[in-house]
Amino acid sequence: MQITLPYGSQSISFSPEFKLNKDKVIVPNYISKLSDFEAILNKALENPIGSEPLPELLKKSNRIAILLDDITRPGPKKQVVTFLVRYLIKYGIKKSDILIMFATGLHRKHTYSEWEYMLGSKILSEFRVMDHDPDGEYRYFGETKRGTPVEINKLVADADITIGVSYLGIHDFAGYTGGAKIILPGVSSRRSVQINHVLSLDERSQPGVADGNPAREDMEEAAKLFGYDFSINIPLNYNEEPVGIYAGDFIKAHRQGIGQVDFMYKIKVDKKVDVIFVSAGGFPNDISLYHASRALVYCSNVIREGGTLVLISECKEGIGNSDTEEIIKKYDNNIEEITDHLRMHYTIGKWVGWKILSYAEKFDIIVVSDKIDEEIFTKTKIKISKNISKALEFVYKKHGKEFDYLIIPYGNVTLPII
Helix 77-90 crosses helix 112-119 at what angle (to 10 degrees)? Predict the structure, then answer.
């Protein structure tokens, strides 16, 4: 019997020499897409969770800011925005008073064709659409108890009502996407984002954890200080189809929605294992090691110290981030020095490099890729294998033919838990 795992736009297959047990192959649970998306969205706006209905909020409002995830997050943006602007106009909001902003945080700006892909030409021609600028003008709303300055894009701050539309899924260190995250980092200043993101170094800032997660709680405190009005959170199945809409208070609606996310993507396993074979999910999720690292983060808690993790990832763009590559190239058994550096000079790319190197101190990592440059990893404990056969040779030599294992075909979304 063969094992087949996504790899780029194709797949990698191998016949294991260990006993194959189908219960050791873990995949997300499936939920069918919503049957009548617009009717359910309308109901969510008028019967929200923990807040006034949107029509009530609109009675005392003129200027509206609609915040959207950027292109790195999936979701039915065009469908939601098209419905939402019609809805706002029905309740007396003028087109000229509606701002649509992509909450890009510190991500790059979009091209016009990307805007068109996400929203369509009609929306672009009729409404003011822009990307957030983390280095632009902002308004100050105080400081969180963890010391993060709450500096929000001036155009968003000047709106009477802020409506955020978010994909709701698992996040590497904020626990989950959605909710307050569209405010911080979404439309916050560079300084705000960098100070908040240092909290990703805290071991409590874990994927699939909301309450008690310092990074998430700091984001929520910032959103509260700003006065975030109305949050729309949309979980997707692994086909990226909407399966629910949780709207209203940015914490209460978010927490209700993550129950559905947990059902789909948190998969219970019996115990930690010796070996994990994990695919980053194929293209575009394995386009670079930077993108594929999510699969490492998600399954790191179910591998034994001293075990072996085999990451199947094409990485046709190599490392994919200059900061990540710099951290890896300069590594010299100095995890603590990198940690101290991050506290003062944080970037997401550096954090990804630090995270990968930290894992490599605890268990062996073999990246199966025929595209990545193995010279980059000379100073590290990470191994690059041009094919699955070489990776298997290492596994069999180290662990023999009998060992506890897991096989995870979609490591980009699957969060195994004990």
Answer: 70
Tell me, what DSSP letter sits at residue 374?
A: G
Mean pLDDT, the chain, integer? 95
- What is the DSSP pairing of strand 415-417 with strand 98-102? unpaired
Overall size of the chain counted in residues: 418
Which pLDDT value is given to residue 72? 79
- Count of CB atoms situated within 10 Å of the CB of 28: 17
SS3 content of the chain, % helix, strand, coil (to 5): 40, 25, 40
Predicted model pTM: 0.92
User: Strands 175-176 and 64-68: what pairing?
Assistant: unpaired
Around Cβ 40, how many Cβ atoms within 10 Å?
Answer: 15
Q: How far, in Å, CA of 222 to CA of 137, rounded?
A: 18
User: Kind of pairing, strands 246-248 and 230-235?
Assistant: antiparallel
Alpha carbons 291 and 169: distance in angstroms, whole number: 16
Contact 206, 213 (CB under 8 A): yes
- The DSSP element (H or E) to which 381 belongs, if any, is none
* 3-class secondary structure, 114: helix
Asked, as a colleague might, if the bond just before 284 is cis with ω within 30 of 0, I would say yes
Q: Compute the Cα dihedral for 87, 91, 96, 102 and give only its sign.
A: negative
In sequence order, what are the residues at sequence separation of 6 or more whose Cβ sits closer than 8 angstroms to the Cβ of residue 221?
144, 145, 146, 148
CA-CA distances (angstroms) from residue 137 to 70, 189, 211? Answer: 20, 8, 32
Q: What are the angstrom distances between the C-alpha of 29 and each of 32, 260, 261, 262, 266?
A: 10, 10, 10, 9, 9
User: Structure tokens of 8?
Assistant: 């780029």
Closest by CA to 293, choosing from 173, 379, 197, is 173
Determine contact, residues 216/174, Cβ cutoff 8 Å: yes
Name the helix (H) or strand (E) containing 149: strand 149-153
Task: Give residue-wise pLDDT tens across range 319-343.
Answer: 999 999 999 999 988 899 999 999 9
- Among 253, 249, 145, CA closest to 199: 145
HSE (side-chain half, CA atoms, 13 Å) at 239: 8
Collapsing DSSP states into helix, strand and coil, what is residue 135? coil
Q: For residue 358, which of 375, 379, 333, 340 has the smallest C-alpha distance?
A: 333
> Token match 């617009």: residue?
38
State pLDDT tens for residues 227-264: 999 999 999 998 899 999 999 999 999 999 999 999 99
